[in-house]
Amino acid sequence: DAFQSYGFKKSANAPVSEEAMTAVNAALTDLIAKAPVLGNAKLVHWYSSGISEEEDLLPILLEGEWDDGVDSEPDDEEEKSALQAAKALISSIENGTRPERLHARYYIMPLSGANGRMMVRLWQEGSYEDLYYNIKQWFEDLSLISWNGQGRAKPPKLKALGTRLLKPGGDPKKVWSRMDDELPNLLQRLLSAILNGTALPDEIPARALRWIRSSLLESDEEKRTVPFDIETLAFQLLKAWLCRRQRMRGDEHPMEATCNQETTRDVAYYCGQLMAVYVAIQRKAMPEVGVGVAERYYTAASANPAFAMGKLAQLSQHHLGKLDPGLAYYFESKISEITVKIGNRKIPVVMNMEQQTEFALGYYQQRAVLYAPKEK
After folding, report:
1. pTM
2. Could you read off the pLDDT of 226-257 as tens digits, one per residue?
3. How many Cα atoms occupy the beta-carbon half-sphere of 110 within 13 Å?
4. Which pLDDT tens digit goes with each residue over 281-321?
5. Collapsing DSSP states into helix, strand and coil, what is residue 256?
6. Residue 152 DSSP class
7. CB 35 within 8 A of CB 42
8. C-alpha closest to that of 112 among 22, 183, 23
C-alpha cells in the first residue's frame, strides 16, 4: 500500500529518490517559467530530442502568426522565423534528408493551481509532424475574407478568439480575467480539438452566435468593444466549427473563405446573403438611421427566416425607391442573383445551430463583397 513500502507502516516513503525529484523540480520550474497562459493554465510543453526552440510551434498557434500564402504575412520577425524553421523541418522530413526527425514528439501539459496543489488540466502528446499539419489545418479552417472585402483577415490569436466566447456584457477592461474565470474548461477542449484535428465543441458556435446577436442589439456604439461592421473573430470561429463538421461528414465543398458563386450552399447561407443586401440598401437609402434593419431583424431572420425574410423584402422595396436608379439596379441585381440560387427550395421556418452558422457566414461574406471597392 501507499507509504507502507518495506513494511514500514509509519514511514512516508517517496516513490522516487531525492536526486530524481530534484531533477524533476528543476525541469518543471524551467518549463513553467517560459510557458504561455491560456484559460488560467500554464501551457507547459516540450519536445523530444531534435526539435530546437526556434522550431517550437505552440507560440505560433497562440499568437496567430501563420503565413498561408494568401494575402497575409506574419508581422513579427521572431514568429516569422519560427514558422519558417518549422516549415523547413517538415520539408526535410518529407524529402528524407533528416529522417531521424520523423520520431520527434511533442508533449503538452497545461497546469493550474487548485487549493494549494498543482492540477494537470490536459495531457497531450504526439508527433511533431502531426502537430504541424493540425495547426496548419486550424488556420486554414479560420481563413476568412476580411470585413472590407480586401484580402484575407489576419490569422487570429487563440486568446483573442476566446473573447467571442464570453457571456455578453461585463466590464471590457476585465475581459482577460473573465476568460480565466469563465472559459478554462472550454479553452482546454478547444486546444485539444486543434491539436488532434478533431471537431470543435458545439458550445463554440452557440457562444459565438450569442456574441453576434448581442453585438447587433447593442445600440450604444461607445459600449462596443469592437464595432460590429468590422467584426471578424466570431465569424472565424463559426467557419472553423462548420468546416470541421462538414469535412467529417464527408461534404464535397466545406465552407470557403470567400463567396464562391459556383458552389451550391444551404438555403440558410443564401438567406444570410439576402439579409446583408437588405441591410446595405437601407443604409444607403437612410444613412441617418441609428437602429436599422440589422439591429431590428437579424436575430429573427437567423432563427425564423420564413417569417422575417418576407418582411425584409417588403421593406427593401420601400428603401429602393429612395435610391438613384443606377444604385437601385445594382442592388436589385444582387437580390436576383441570390434568389435564383435558392430556386424552388423552401426557406426554413426554424433553423438549427448549423443553419444559423451558415446564415451568419452568408451574411458576413456578402457584406464583405458589398464593402469591397467596386473595381475589385
Report:
1. 0.85
2. 566 678 999 999 999 999 999 999 998 899 99
3. 18
4. 998 998 877 678 888 899 999 999 998 999 999 999 989 99
5. coil
6. B
7. yes
8. 183
